[in-house]
Amino acid sequence: MAENNLSNKIRRLRFENGEMTQQQLADKVGVTRQTIIAIEAGKYAPSLPLAFRIARVFGVSVETVFQYKDEDS
Amino acid sequence: MNRAQKISLTMVITFLLGLFLGIILIVMRLFDLGVPKIAFLLPVCIAGSGGIISITCFKKDKGAIAFDERDKLVEKNANLAGFGAVYLYVILMSFLPIVILGGEASIPVTWCPVLLIGAGFCQAFAQSIAYLIQYGWRVKDGGE
Q1: A35–B70 CB contact, under 8 Å
Q2: What is the pLDDT of residues B36-70, one digit of tens each?
Q3: Does the beta carbon of B142 lie under 8 angstroms from any beta carbon of chain A?
Q4: What is the domain range of residue A44?
Q5: How far is residue B2's CA from residue B132's CA, in Å, rounded to a whole number?
Q6: Model confidence pTM above 0.90
Q7: CATH number at residue A42
Q8: CA distance A40 to chain B (A)
Q9: Contact call for A22 and B63, based on CB within 8 A
Q10: Which of A51, B67, B107, B132 is the most exposed place for a label (fewest CB within 10 A)?
Q11: Residue B67 C-beta-side C-alpha neighbours within 13 Å
Q12: CB nearest to A34's CB, from B2, B64, B73
């Protein structure tokens, strides 16, 4: 389930949004805290709907939250 | 640790304890140390106790959301691992008696339910290992 090509700025965005805790973010997007931890650590790639929900919580686009690196770039 | 992890860890521990005790009893029986057949129920009970402990001790996770898309994926993969393990077990148990006892040998029919119980343990063990691997072995999850 490790997605090495996928990175994210969730941690930074949480702190920029009133030091939101992982539990608060998890409750807002409808997942468990463990899933937020796994996404932050890059161990789990969320589904598109979840990625959009996370982005909407922070009021930014999905590309701002998640970045995908190509193998050849 | 969520409920699935606790259950899996309990299952793995009790299964390994039962397996260890079972091996000791088999070795003792091989050396004619007077181990009655009924004694073999003990490792089976120990191995099976994981399920009973899990049902009685681990209640549903607290919080509004206890199960999400990641848990669903982990569960799916764990079920697949359990199925694969049973498949391998059936293949192994179909050929092992021929390899060990020879083509002309016969085995008692009482082995059939024993093999079935073995398949159940095999499935539960593989599923538990798959859960633990996917969620991560560490108790500390790096959260805040």
Answers
A1: yes
A2: 888 888 988 998 888 888 888 888 777 678 788 99
A3: yes
A4: 6-63
A5: 11
A6: no
A7: 1.10.260.40
A8: 10
A9: no
A10: B107
A11: 8
A12: B2
Q: Which amino acid, B128? A: S
Note whether residue A70 is domain-resident.
Answer: no
Cβ contact (<8 Å) for B65 and A30? yes
Compute and round to an integer the Cα radius of gyration of chain B.
18
Query: How close A25 gets to chain B, by Cα (Å)?
Result: 12
ipTM over 0.95: no
- Pairing relation of β-strands A66-68 and A6-8? antiparallel
Q: Does B80 touch chain A (CB under 8 A)?
A: no
Q: Confidence band (pLDDT; 50, 70, 90) for B141?
A: very low
Q: Kindly report, residue by residue over B56-65, the tens digit of the pLDDT.
A: 888 877 767 8
Mean pLDDT, residues B70-98 taken together? 95
Count of domains observed in chain A: 1
Residue A72 in any domain: the answer is no
> What is the pLDDT, as a whole number, of residue A72?
63
Torsion angle defined by CA atoms of residues B88, B91, B96 and B102, in that order, rounded to the nearest 10 degrees: -170
Cα A39 to the center of its chain, rounded Å? 6
Whether the CB of B63 is below 8 Å from some CB of chain A: the reply is: yes
Query: How distant is the Cα of A60 from the closest Cα of chain B, in angstroms?
Result: 22
